[in-house]
Amino acid sequence: MALPACNLLKGKTAAITGGTTGIGRAIALAFITQGCNVAVNHLGLPQDEVHRHSLLDEVKSIQQGGIAAGKILEIPGDVTAPETSINLVKEAVSQWGKLDIFVANAGVFKQAEFLQIESSLLDHSIDVNIKGCFYSCQAAARQMVKQGHGGSIIGISSVSALVGGGLQTHYTPTKAAVLSMMQSMAISLGKDRIRCNALMPGTIATQLADHDMKNPTKKAALEARIPLGRIGNPDDMAGPAVFLACEEMSRYVNATGLLADGGMFSNLQ
């Protein structure tokens, strides 16, 4: 794990979309290690069962490690449907009585040449990355406002919100939208003591980056642009997410985009 078990989120309840693989999974495991109960959303596809089962096994291993770990609840559903997020929040609250933290992580990306992008790919990117984020954050915020004791909402954006990409013309706008969404939500929800921030990963070795990770030349070129000299891994996002989720650590951090890219953005200037 990226962080030792320090009970930083003890007694808290979180919900995460797209939480069985990649960054969402790493954040879910980090939260549970810190004593947080976590409701994890996933698509529930047959081909993803291996990830669901391995996540549950990993959580069990954490819980058997002699620490005050949190519990997990996994709920299938497609975030492009508003009902999915409403149900995710409802189940988390039914199980643990409240919602303190929400992470809008579910996202899609497929490299494509601008002139070759069809409406179906653009629509799917917008539906998942923007609408899915909006619906899920709205459901979480409604619950937090109802509770009346604040909370933390984290949208997973990207360094791609700040820079262009020739094969990402359908993707970079969606990640810029997540950053903008968190800023506007922070203004709207500040009176309710709900902090809204964007976590902005750089190049991370997840399923979404498989195309680049399997190309030695492309991977080497990416590494050369990162001052730390390596591609990030999902666990590198766990610490920043715990920081943004933890009231004691980030209580005055609001409406910001937290870059976690190994310094890549600065090296692109």
Automatic annotation (TrEMBL):
InterPro entries: NAD(P)-bd_dom_sf (IPR036291), SDR_fam (IPR002347)
The entry's keywords: NADP, Oxidoreductase, Rhamnose metabolism
One annotated GO molecular function: 3-oxoacyl-[acyl-carrier-protein] reductase (NADPH) activity
EC number: 1.1.1.100
Family (UniProt): Belongs to the short-chain dehydrogenases/reductases (SDR) family.
PANTHER family: (3R)-3-HYDROXYACYL-COA DEHYDROGENASE, SHORT-CHAIN DEHYDROGENASES/REDUCTASES FAMILY MEMBER
Protein name per the record: Contig An05c0060, genomic contig
Organism: Aspergillus niger (strain ATCC MYA-4892 / CBS 513.88 / FGSC A1513)
